[in-house]
Amino acid sequence: MFLRNCRTCLALPRFHNSLAVPLRKNYSTSGPIKDSPRKRRTIFSGIQPTGIPHLGNYLGALSNWVKLQDEGNPQDTFIFSIVGWHALTLPQNPKELAASRRDMLAVMLAIGLDPKRSIIFHQDSNAMHTELAWILSCITPTGKLRRMTSWKTRLAQSRNANDESEVDESLLNAGLLTYPVLQAADILLYRATEVPVGEDQKQHLELSRDIADTFNHTFKGPSPIFPSPAALITPTKRILSLKDPTSKMSKSTPDPTSRILLTDSASQIAAKVRGAVTDSISSGVTYDTVARPGTSNLLSILAACSDEDVQVVAERCEGMSHSALKGQVADAVEALIARPRAEFTRIRADEGYLEQVARDGAAAARDLSARTMEKVRERIGLN
């Protein structure tokens, strides 16, 4: 719910696939800021450095970032960040986190994000994120943070409790409560006008809008410092676990065969799809998310990979066996990720290039954010 110059001889071809769709037709915004061909837009989004993304991450967010970048107006600014500080809200192995940061940067480049077109950087390389987060936390009531769905979910998970009255806040760290303020700082630091979000992140963006409004009203000046960031509702494909089609595909699930990683080989993809849960109904293939969630999930994956309507795909596959359907799904997934997988392998091996992209992106991010923080410090009396 996250310059242009690369001083290296390694050229990165952009990755395009059949998912590309016209931006104006498929993207919409909510909130007071409307898309206009004459209005400069600043679009910000971020992702945690949690290792190699899976198919759900790619179809749900990352591929949309590439579309936004490639189909946006030349005057638009695109900022994509790896939000390392957010990762610290949960225990991390330092060596694994360092490797995951590099992995995620390599993935972002491999799928087609272009450092000559977008600012791509590590959030933790810009200390102004945490500076602004502290300032914003001082005007954000804790009551608002305790009402966040993410906080309530963490509370319930801490005791495996379904009743909020049974959970104990003392078991959780303060970062889990306040990270939505850091998320707001990530967005407002660059005065973003739009943020790509899914339905599960809309509450966090609403908090960012509330915080921006509170700051602007508390520290008045000739003009507001922060715009009210609008939700850029992107077309997302809901990809579920191959082993539990009632849950989203997730890297936190213990069973590695429940998810397809962007670095999986063709044989690994085929094996995971073959082992996917379907059902015992033998009368062909139908799309019914209630009665046949496993089969429906495979149809959804096939439709997402080919950028088709799932009902159209279901009609085409109606007479198939589950074995034949799984074969088509495996082939479609392999066709989708073969190129970014190869690009990842190439880019990940070039540590120097990754470091250069990270340095250039961080420098560009600091340049933009310094202009914001100069205004903020002056407005609150620290300049």
UniProtKB/TrEMBL annotation:
Key words, A-Z: Aminoacyl-tRNA synthetase, ATP-binding, Ligase, Nucleotide-binding, Protein biosynthesis
GO terms for cellular component: mitochondrial matrix
EC number(s) per entry: 6.1.1.2
Protein biosynthesis in keyword set: yes
Organism superkingdom: Eukaryota
Classification via Pfam families: tRNA-synt_1b
Record InterPro entries: aa-tRNA-synth_I_CS, aa-tRNA-synth_Ic, Rossmann-like_a/b/a_fold, Trp-tRNA-ligase, Trp-tRNA-ligase_bac-type, Trp-tRNA_synthetase
Gene Ontology terms, MF aspect: ATP binding; tryptophan-tRNA ligase activity
Location of the protein in the cell: Mitochondrion matrix
Reaction(s) this enzyme catalyzes, per UniProt: tRNA(Trp) + L-tryptophan + ATP = L-tryptophyl-tRNA(Trp) + AMP + diphosphate + H(+)
Biological process annotations from GO: mitochondrial tryptophanyl-tRNA aminoacylation
Family per record: Belongs to the class-I aminoacyl-tRNA synthetase family.
Protein name, UniProt field: Tryptophan--tRNA ligase, mitochondrial
Organism of origin: Mycena pura
